[in-house]
Amino acid sequence: MADRERVIAYRVAAHQFDRTTTDPARLRVFDLGLQDSERSAVPALAARLDVVPPLDDAFTLTWTVRGAPHRHRARDVPALAARLWPLGDADAVARMGRPPVTEGLRVLREVAAALRDVVTGPMTKGEASARLTPLVPPEVTGWCRSCGATHVLDPVFRLAVLPAGLRFDPDERGVVFVPLEDRREVPERAEGFGELITHYLGLHGPAGYAEVARYFDAPVRDVKAAWPDDLVPVSRKAWLPADRVAAFENPPEPEVVRLLPPLDPYLNARDRELLVPDAEHRKQVWRVLGRRGALLVDGEVLGTWQARTSGGRLDVTLAPFVALDLDMFAEEADRLARARGLAEARIG
Questions:
Q1: How far apart are CA 124 and CA 330, in angstroms?
Q2: In the chain, helix, strand, coil percent, each to 5?
Q3: What would the DSSP string read from start to end of 224-259?
Q4: Distance between CA atoms of residues 101 and 31, nearest Å
Q5: Cα 234 to Cα 206: distance, rounded to the nearest angstrom
Q6: Closest CA to 62 of 97, 36, 91
């Protein structure tokens, strides 16, 4: 295999698109967390599991990586706050949306500690924000035109939720916070970020400092300083965990056809030029507005798709980049419909 072909084949296998795994907790995507924005988690699981079970209490939903809602194994969440804690003051300020502060870590710790004290039981985001705002430095608050009120800046609020020990109530339609069962104190420092680096490389590797930094919104120099010593270089600028090198050297042929949702973990790797070499096609796959899913054929992203519900049916519109037999996606559309609780699907 050529270098790019080998990387693609490795990643398809690492993402477990072969559907041989039956327990969702054993999916490697949960090592980093499964993003669940715009109902993206269920179709991502449908691409990897033969049957998608309900995501029960074994999984926790909260704001984590890049301030986005992710589902994590519940047992992983208590330690995750320290793993995702900013790596320095500049990192903290950047992740908070660059408010006019210099001691980013101290300010974030104050906000998270205050939020932890405020939310002692189920509480809506609006109520939590209203109670939190007068307790934090004014530099991290601002006037919100849509709310007609001054409150904590949204990036600051999102960044503070996990270290405050909060999760979402999955049974509520809006954002309702619930304290974690194993709630810990606000972290004093980052601990265990190297493990997240290893998880990223295991799923999205081989990769280097820049890709990992972009994924976690962290400074490259801090990522480099936290780089684990036991990683194996497979090229001048790319590493893998030692236990994944053999899988990279001899990956299976990536013979899969999938309808990947927008924000699928496969699409969240930060070397987009490798995944989709054509610049115009990249613009379609990673649209800023009106996100679309990706047509995955044997490891290659060969088009986009959109879906809407019509009664009990899922209508899937395909937009391939090259000539394709669209019927090859019929079974995947049916799987996606069932995972979303619909009776049938239609492609076109």
A1: 41
A2: 40, 20, 40
A3: HHH--TT-EEEETTEEE-GGGHHHHHSPPP---EEE
A4: 33
A5: 7
A6: 36
pLDDT tens-place string over residues 174-226 = 899 999 998 999 999 999 999 999 999 999 999 999 999 999 999 999 999 99
Lookup: tokens for 245? 């090198």
Question: How many residues comprise the chain?
Answer: 348
Strands lying side by side in the sheet with 34-35: 34-35, 69-73, 59-63
- How far is residue 347's CA from residue 220's CA, in Å, rounded to a whole number? 43
Structural tokens at position 149: 């009120």
**The two structure tokens encoding residue 222:** 């801090």
Indicate left, alpha or beta for 71 from its phi (over 0: left) and psi (-120 to 50: alpha).
beta
Q: How far apart are CA 5 and CA 299, in angstroms?
A: 9
Q: What is the pTM of this model?
A: 0.94
Higher model confidence: residue 63 or residue 312? Answer: 63
- Rounded Cα distance between 6 and 120, Å, is 50
